[in-house]
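ok so I'm stuck.
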Amino acid sequence: MTLLEAARDLLVPARCAGCATTGEWLCQACRDECEPRTLPSGGSPRLRIRGAGSFEGGLREAIHRFKYGAERGLSAELGALVASLVARDLAAGTPLDALVPVPLHVTRRTERGYDQAALLAASVAVRTGLPLVPALRRIRGGHPQVRLGRAARAENVGGAFVACAGSLRGLRVALVDDVATTGATLRAAAATTRAAGARAARAYVIAVDD
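replied:
not stuck anymore, here's the structure
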């Protein structure tokens, strides 16, 4: 965070992206409206993708402000939504060893000034106690997924990620990203984690947009 951004956050009060109430970037009332979603695990490899809500209404606005409006303060509230999903699975006996953010390409990260998935995953790590392992690197920028159809999305992210051999050996990883539409990006990331030795992969996002 730059000094200018820090000063802005001190001078400009947080305002809920969902209802404009001051005091929080996403108020508890708006968070309570979120209904967890699961994206059908089609495609290859098959992957369970869980979202804290649907990509609509206040949650959609919050994600847009977080990704494109430089409102990094939303990482805490949005991360809390994702953390609740992870915590429920842990409590239900789902074994998870590490959180792995799905990274932006360095060019996109430089343009934006931050990587939203990394901020989310860091917030989830604080709340769940799971270690954060930024093992993936995106080597292909491709076109923004939002502009592409279902088939083109899968082609666009093919071979997009790499990880050091053995860097995830034996780990059961929880991939963290912001939005899942077809799941193509998350499946490509999951395939790379398995190539790096992961025993299993699941995915958690703020919202499902299907």
